[in-house]
Structures are given as structure tokens and as C-alpha cells.
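re: ur question from earlier - yeah i can do the single chain one, its not a big deal. heres the input i used so u can compare w yours
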Amino acid sequence: MKRWARVLGWTAGILLGLLIVAAGGIYLVATSDYLRGQVEARASDLTGRKTSIAKVVVQWGWTANVKLEGIEVANAKWGKAPYMLKVDQVDFDIRLWPLLGGNLVLPRLVLRKPEVQVEVGDKEQLNWSMGETPVVTGAAKALEPDNRFDAPLIGKFEVTEGKLGYRDPKRKLELDGTVSTAAGKAGDGPEAELSLKGKLEGQPLEMRFVGGSVLMLRDTEQPYPLDLNVSFGATKMTMKGTVQDPFKWTGANVDLTLSGPNLSDIYPLLGIPGPPTPPYTIVGKLEREPGLWKFVQSKWRVGESDLTGEVTIDERRKPEFLTAKLVSQKLVFEDLAPLVGATPARKTNVSPKQAQTQSQLEASGDLFPNVPLHVEKIRAMNMDVTLDAKRVIAPPWLPVQALSFRVLIQDGNATVKPLTLSVLGGGAIAGELGIDARTDDPKVRASLRLTDIELRNFFRESRYFDATQGKIQGRVQLAGNGRSLAHVMGTANGHMAFALGGGSVSSLMVSLAGLQIFDALVLYVAGDNRIPIKCAVSRLNFQQGNVSFDRTLLDTQKSVLHVKGQLSLKSQAVQAEIDSDPKSFNLLDLHGAVMVQGKLRTPQISLGRVIPIPTPVFGSAKDVPCAGLTQEILSGP
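and the output i got, formated as C-alpha cells:
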């Protein structure tokens, strides 16, 4: 918010700065006996910069006319431009009698070919800063209006062929543009116009501002009109409406619209660390209280999701503090993928960069994208953000129906707590996430618990739904570091543990994996059946991105299936095998494990045969002590 407020501030500040210089010159001309020389000397004291004036012409009278020609105000010593301000001519009329009462009345003020150079130094200092000398500070405070009706009374104000340059090397911001006043359209009053073009962090930046003239500040009680359009790369921002008092931003009726391919792109423009998103459009009202900006009545369209809410930025706190309360009646789960550097699986309504990332993942077979997350932006602003998604639309394999979370960011340390995902059938996934971005190698952690999640809901919209049942319990404790999801997973340490105390799975699903060829042949003809599950447990141990299967098994009436092998999250590949240990006599057994190997994204499943034909086998496997094993893997470190 502060960044675009500065954009408007440039407009008001430039005009006000020119008025300050002109007003100071007016006062000095009216009271000095040594016209040009004294004006130069005192203007230098007033501005804190060496000031030269080529010519001073005064026509005295109760309403005097003053012309100052060839004005040049030197830049700060550290500045790059040769001057801070250059004006071909300042031509104004001034009524002398009101000066005795401390009132500045200018029936006419014309600035011809003013050139303003604004620069920001490496220590965030501004060359136009009025705080570098006591004289300047005092003059600025004396001339600064408290409200619109304290502004100088000007009958006619005109700027012709004005130019503005803005340089901020630290933010890679370069702007050049024009400043002018013009008659309003269709008989309206005069307008002030500011048009700028340049670059910000290498991206094209354009800005056009049209507002009421300086005359409106004093001569009328009508609200001050403003119309701002900003383009930064593919990001667009418009602000249109009226403000009763633009100096205090009171009585505002201003509509703000923001759109673009990715909300994280707003940081260079507004100074707000927005989260990565799919393409978005946001509309709302912009309000102001002392030290506080408010974005209210906002409606968000992010990807395929809809949100509403309110955002405030408190400038009185250092660093600035953002509070957002958002509610969604429809949240598409895929739209959260960019938060971790992933991409929505759909082909439409994604940004060009996200579509390119998805194509690269499909070509390489990788699951985790290596897209750098600019988490250092978390240090720029403290936040308290809540989201309550009443209805979540998730893929068939993820039975989430609602979610809520609260994000707290304090000095670069972000915590998502509490995080709750409500699952179909009454289960839940709850816990917290954390990102410590106080260093250039961010640390990421996750602590989650899965409670009473219906197994069948992972197979909704599939042929296995009706034959599957049981409730899953689970625990996730992971920590990693890096600047992308691929790096974090490639350094992950911790574990994931899951348990199913009883239920059933589709016999056809198991048979098609190659474990019981005889059952599969029968079921192809007779249809699907259930295989009762006595117990299923799995613990995955993570060590620097290498994952091993620990006590991972499925206990059925016929056999116990054991999973062994490893995953490498660095190479994003798997090499595992599933062995069947029969409990009783089996006429047709393949004597071979089911092999799962290849990229995590698209692993290949095959049968590792030891004997090429099925032969009888006498099984001796025992039932698994499910209760004790479940408690052991879920409560272990």
C-alpha cells in the first residue's frame, strides 16, 4: 500500500514542492532589497541546495507581477543528476496586502518547462528531503498545508511542458515522464496530469494520473477527483474516485482494482509481499485513517477461487504490519499450489510461467518443482492473515471439503497455526507449518496429525469406492531447508506414519497389482469384491531427502504384504518392492515381488518373477499385532 501511496505522493509532492519553491521566492522578492542576488542566496538557504536564478523582473503594484527566469536548484552531493530542479520561468501575480495577515494569495501562477529530478540514495535518503537542514525543515513545516483549505489561494495555476525523472537504484526503478495541467473535458474544470514511463526491476512501468487542479484544493468544497492507472509488466492497477481532503485522505470514495498473472509480482510496485497465486483480479474500496490504510469491501478472484474480506496496513508500526481477514465460499484446492512453488494441474487460467513450469515437470518426470520462492520478502512486513474457506473443491484423490488457517509473520519468521483441513466423512488434518526466512537458507517445518479419515474417500469417482472402507490415523513430522519445494524435500528429515485399524479394499485393485493372478482372472469375469483388512501400517523415515520404508505392511485374511525399498527426493525417484507372505495354502502363487520403480511422478509397476509359472505354496504368516504396532509407529519420535 505504501508504495502506490508514494506514487500519488509524487504527484502531490511535485506540485507542492514547486509551490514551496515559488512561494519562498515570492516572499523573498517581496521583502528583499537585493533582488536577484538576495533571492538566490535566500532560496539556497530555503532549499538547502545551491540555487541560481538568471533573471528577476518585478512589476510592483497592489497586485505585483514577478518573473523568475532560468531557475536551477543543485542536486544533493550524492545525486547523479546535475540538478534537482530546473525551471525556464516562474511567472506569478501576488497580492501584497494579504501578506500582512499571513495569507498567500496568487491570482495567477505559471510554471514553464519545469524539470524535476527525484533520486533515492543507497541509504534510503531522498534528494528532495526537507530534513537535511534546520532551515529547510522549518520552512517545510511552515508551508505544508494541514488540510486542503490551508493550501495557497491560487486563482489560476498552469504547468506547461513539465518533466519528471525518478531514480531508485536499490529498487531498480527508473521513470521519466511529463507533468502538466490542462482544461477538463466537456467543459469541466482544469485538471492536473502526470504521465510516466520507465522500468522497475527490469520490467516496463507506466503510470498516468489525472486529478483535479490545485485550484480545487482551495476554491471549492467539492471532493477532489483522481484517476490513476499503473501498468507494471502484466500487473495492472487502477484507482478512481474522489477524496474530500487529499492531504488527509478523508471522505474517500475510491475504487481500487488490481489484476495480474501472479500476486507475488506486486512486491516491487507496492512493497507488499503478496503470496504466489494463479492469475487474479481484486476489487474493493480504499480508505484511510491516520497511519492506517484500509482495503475494504474487497472481492477476489484468484484462479478459479472466490474470496472476500478486508486488508489493513498499519504504517505506525515498524516494520509495517498487515492484517487480512479473508473468507471463501468456493476455494479450488489447486489454486493453493503456487504457495509452495507448485503449479495448478489444469491447463487453463494459469500464468505463462506456471504453464512453462508444468511443461518442464511433465518433460522431466519430476514431481517437485525447482521454482525459487522469494521468501526473503517475508522480512519486509509483519502480518496476521486468516483464511476461512467454507467450501473446498479438491481433486478426487484428496477428500478435503473445508479449510482454515492463520498465518503470523514476525521479523521474517512465518507460522501457519492453527491449520485445519476438514475431510469428507468427518475426519480432519490439523497442525502447523513454519518457515524461518531470517537467513538466506530458509528452514521449513511441518507438524500434522490425521484423524479418522475415511479411506474410501480417496477413491471417490473411481470403481473402487464402494468396496473400500476404514479410517486412517496419521502423523507427519518433517523439516527441511532451501529456496524451492524441490530443495526443501531434497533435504527433508523426520517421518510420516499412517495406520488403518481395520476395513477393506477392492480385491480387483490388489489383484491388478499382480499379487494374486488367479483372483484377477476370476474378477475380470465376476466383478469386484472386497478384501477385508485386519491392519495396515506404514512409517516413512526421512533423512536428508532419502526415504526408507519402515514397518510398512498390509495384513489381509490371505496374506501379509510387506513393502521395502527407498525413495530419493533429490532425484525424485522410487525403487521399492511389495512381497506377499501367504497365511495358508495357495494353489497359484507367482513366487515374485511386485516392483515399483522410476520417477515419483510416473512410477512403473512390474512383477519380479523368480519362477516363471505359478506353483502351489504353503503359507505360514501370522496375523499382525495391529494395536501395539499402530501405537508404536504413531507415538514414536
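Residues 2-31 form the longest helix (30 residues). not sure if urs matches, ping me
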